[in-house]
Amino acid sequence: MPACLICEEPFQPFMSFGRMPIANGFLTEAQFPQEFFDELTVGACPRCSMVQLGRILPPEQLFHENYAYFSSISTRMTEHFRRFAEWVSGSFLTGKDPFVVEIGSNDGIMLQNFAKSGMRHLGVEPSANVAQAAQARGVRTVCRFFDEKAGREIRGEHGAAQAVLGANVICHLPNINSVVRGVLELLDDRGVFVFEEPYLGDIVEKTSYDQIYDEHYLYYALGSLDRLFARHGMEVVDVVPQQVHGGSMRYVAARRGAWPVRESVVRQRAHEEALGLAHPGTYLRLRARIEESRRKLAALLRDLKGAGKTVAGYGATSKSTTVTNYCGIGPDLVAYISDTTPGKQGRFSPGVHIPVVPYERFQESPPDYALLFAWNHGAEIVEKEAGFRARGGKFLVYVPEVGVLE
Question: What fold is seen in the domain 298-404?
Answer without folding.
Answer: Rossmann fold (3.40.50)
